[in-house]
Amino acid sequence: MADSNFYLGRLVDAKTAKPTTTTVEYDPADLTTHAVVTGMTGSGKTGLCVALLEEAALQNIPAIIIDPKGDLTNLLLHFPDLLPQDFQPWIDPEMERRTGKSMEEIANEAASSWRNGLNEWGIGPDRLLALKNAAQFAIYTPGSDSGIPVSVLSSLAAPGLDWESNREVLRERISSTVTALLGLVGMNDLDPLRSREHILLSNIFEAHWSEGNDLDLTELILQTQTPPFQNLGAFPVDTFFPPKDRMELAMVLNNILAAPAFETWREGESLDVQKLLFMPDGKPRHSIFYLAHLSDGERMFFVTLLLSAVETWMRTQKGSSSLRALLYMDEIYGYLPPTAVPPSKGPLLRMLKQARAFGLGLLLATQNPVDMDYKALSNTGTWFIGKLQTERDKNRLLDGLESAAGGIPRAAMDKLISSLGKRVFVMHNVHEKMPVLMQTRWAMNFLAGPMTRTQIPDLNLLADADSTRQTLPTPAPVSRRESAPQPSVESFQPVSIPSSQPANVQPAAFQPFTPQPATNNRQPQTTNGTSTKPSLPAGIREYFLPQNYSLPEAFQSARRAMPPQAMIQGIVYRPSLLASAQVRLLDRKYGVDSEITRAALVDVLDRRGIVRWDEFSYGGPSLDKVESMPVASARFGTIDSPLNDSKLMTALQKDFTDWVFRSSEVTARANVKLKVFGGPDVSQAEFMKACADSAREARDAEISKKTAAIEKKINSLQDKLAKEERELREDQADLTNRNMESGANLLELGAGLVGFGRKKSVSTQFTKHRLAQNAKAEVEESEDAIAQFKKDLSALMRERDDMTTEINNRWGSLVNEISEVAIKPKKTDIYVNLFGVAWKPYYLIQSGDEAIELPAFGAE
Fold first, then answer.
1. Which residue of 182, 250, 411, 476 is most buried, as measured by CB atoms within 10 A?
2. What is the C-alpha separation between 769 and 764, in angstroms, rounded?
């Protein structure tokens, strides 16, 4: 027997129906073309499959084993010493009642039977010991903590495949995952091309996976309400799938998270196929998934996720012609049917077609060949055919054999199959010339029959399976494109790695960011949020405050020194209540027509919806900068009451409006006597100037009015004075002339008397003198009149000046008679332009080992 081949049994003489001494060996590389084992209950099908898995373990070939009934838990029952006390704990207690023997006797018989059977088939203790040490065996129990629990949420994480080059494959995985998830909540037989639910969830998956971002069930539920895209096909999302209907779907999916029974599905190891196949030191593993305790829907859900994970892992491996790993499913009924299309069918068919190139072999077992799709049968290279129950089963199998491997005489094969007994199988291998008739060897493991959940903890303890447990890291809010690549399975193959080569070290799991708020104005945050913005009820508006702080400004605002190694890891939005109103204050009497803004930003809210608005008056940047969309790749905190309660928010808006009405006013200045009014936009200096100008105008008007008569008299007197002064000048000139004429005439008279010149008449001299005296009188009269005019004019001017001074003083005193009046708005003049949830940005900062959360928005 070649050490590299599987030892399956011995040839059977078709004529005598007795085994011969010729061993039947099977090349494990032939399993890359897959194998199917079929046979009715009691045909020895389970024993043959156990033998195949034992041989795989001895050849250092890891395996993932899907065990719907609990039979494959026997793979942990290998007892190299073959002691009765090793067998006794695993014997069915009912055997004692049915046989009438004690458990010790039954255990002795079982040990003796196994010792004799193994000896008969040439299997010694050394081979049993080699099996025990060849692989690490462990039983996983999804949905239960009886064995090693499995977290199915990890299956929603983005696969480690490049989207662009694996788009078709990843979309097929998305379709299978969504179908399984919807099947878990009772939505079965959905058409991926017609089901709104399937299309919506598939697009959410694609939106995340195409960017290399993980998705968890919470995110999926939230994004069902608020999808991360605007359109689906040619229609807006709300038209294609209205919000009300999306909420119903989200509620159905939320039942999975809300159900206490689902808690065990969220805890445990992730479906990391690399870790399921190999220990960290490179030792192969046989990981058994016990599903007997699950309902049909839960089984389908988990099997689909597991198959999809295996398929994705397969595509990350290099090509291989040897058997790299084995995927075994004990009962394929319902998972690969000929007509129906359950979510598990797609991954199985794809792997049957393509897994050969990657060195992954599928081993499928079924009682009835009619339960399998004909395409699957045609893609299997090895058929192990045991005793069949009906002629229909036999004919279906013969039809498949003829189409898959023509040249086999149907009549001969029909006769051969019809004569099969227990543990006797026809092995048809496309890599061999002819089918062979064989009897399976004795199983090295104790075939105790199906195990119950209560026995699984002891089985794992027997195999030291607890040492294989891995802690499931919390999914980190980072893109998988930024994580270190997983090592290839090639580096874990013991057959190709020298013993001196150190085992590869898996990359450390990313530690989730746990922020420490640096401010005390909000409750401490226990999570850095979700990448999906929580949805809000209809009617509640939302806004996104801008990042107006740089990192140094954020530290400065928090009054903290900025460490040199501080780096921004991301942005998380926390919900606050934002309220803003435009208030118009109008009073035509006082000349007030002003508009003011009243705003409040409430970070800490009472769940009952009580807000003391005066304590949260907003004085930050202009609310014109409020944004309508969040920054890319941001995360969001949770929304609690009252922000997610439409009734409470409506009541809060009314309360805010009342507060604005009560607390809003402007001060107007008034000078009633001057009839000067000024609103809040007029400064005191400007108002005083306006009053002074008004008083000056009124004063000038009154002075002009009241001094008009006096001015008229003054003007008249001034005219008379001017006229009289003119006449005086004329009279003075005339007097001078008269005096000169009188003097000249007197000289002529004197000269005539003494004989000089012609004699003058004395009467002429008297006439000249009289005219001179008359001229003198007129001058004196004019001088008296001028003096009187000046006296009267001076009196009028004093009267005018006294009147002007009185008027000026009176109006000057009015300038300071100013009063202030409070102008309040009408309720109809209050317009609430912003009211709703304000998403306030915070920086998620990593500084060494310290995680810090600082506001990225605040007063400038």
1. 182
2. 9
In angstroms, the CA 701 to CA 370 distance is 117
CA distance to 79, 642, 714, per residue, from 96 (Å): 22, 65, 149
State pTM to two decimals: 0.64
Contacts (Cβ under 8 Å, ≥6 apart) of 35 = 52, 361, 362, 363, 364, 380, 381, 382, 383, 384
Question: Which pLDDT value is given to residue 388?
Answer: 83
Distance from C-alpha of 44 to C-alpha of 58, rounded to nearest angstrom: 21
Q: Which residues lie below 8 Å from residue 674, measured CB to CB, with a gap of 6+?
A: 691, 694, 695, 698, 814, 815, 817
Which residues partner with 259 through β-bridges? none
pLDDT score recorded for residue 759: 55
Residue with tokens 């055997």: 95
pLDDT at 486: 39
Amino acid identity for residue 167 in this structure: R
Tokens linked to 83: 């002691």
- Phi and psi (nearest 5°) for 256? -65, -45
Query: Residue 742's pLDDT is what?
Result: 67
Residue 131 region, left (φ>0) first, then alpha (ψ -120 to 50), else beta? alpha
Asked whether the beta carbons of 699 and 811 are under 8 A apart, the reply is yes
Angle at 259 between CA 258 and CA 260, to 5 degrees: 110
Task: Write the CB contacts of 300 (distance below 8 Å, at least 6 apart in sequence).
Answer: 180, 183, 334, 335, 342, 343, 344
Residue with tokens 């008739």: 437
Please give the distance of CA 26 from its chain centroid, rounded to a whole number: 53
CB atoms < 10 A from the CB of 160, how many?
16
Q: Nearest Cα to 782, choosing from 729, 734, 737? A: 729
Residues ≥6 apart with Cβ < 8 Å to 405? 428, 430
Q: Give the CA angle between residues 360, 475, 141 to the nearest 5°.
A: 55
pLDDT of residue 64: 97
Structure tokens at 402: 């003829």
pLDDT at 754: 63
Cβ pair 386, 418 in contact under 8 A:
no
Question: At CB < 8 A and 24+ separation, what contacts does 237-243 make?
Answer: 237/200, 240/196, 240/199, 240/200, 241/196, 241/200, 243/538
Contact (CB, 8 A) for 385 and 426? yes
Alpha-carbon dihedral 86, 91, 97, 102, rounded to 10 degrees: -10
Taking Cα atoms as reference points, which of 381, 172, 147, 364 lies closest to residue 267?
147
Decide: 496 and 540 in contact? Cβ < 8 Å: no
Task: Name the residue type at position 775.
Answer: A
- Residue 127: strand, helix, or coil: helix
State the 10-residue block means of pLDDT for the chain, 860 residues long: 83 88 94 92 91 95 93 92 93 88 92 94 92 94 91 78 86 86 83 90 92 86 88 92 91 84 82 92 94 89 90 88 93 88 90 93 89 82 86 74 61 76 90 89 93 91 74 42 38 34 36 43 55 84 90 90 89 93 85 86 85 85 82 87 90 93 86 79 83 87 85 83 81 76 66 61 68 78 83 86 87 83 87 93 90 87
C-alpha triplet 357, 358, 363: angle, nearest 5°: 95
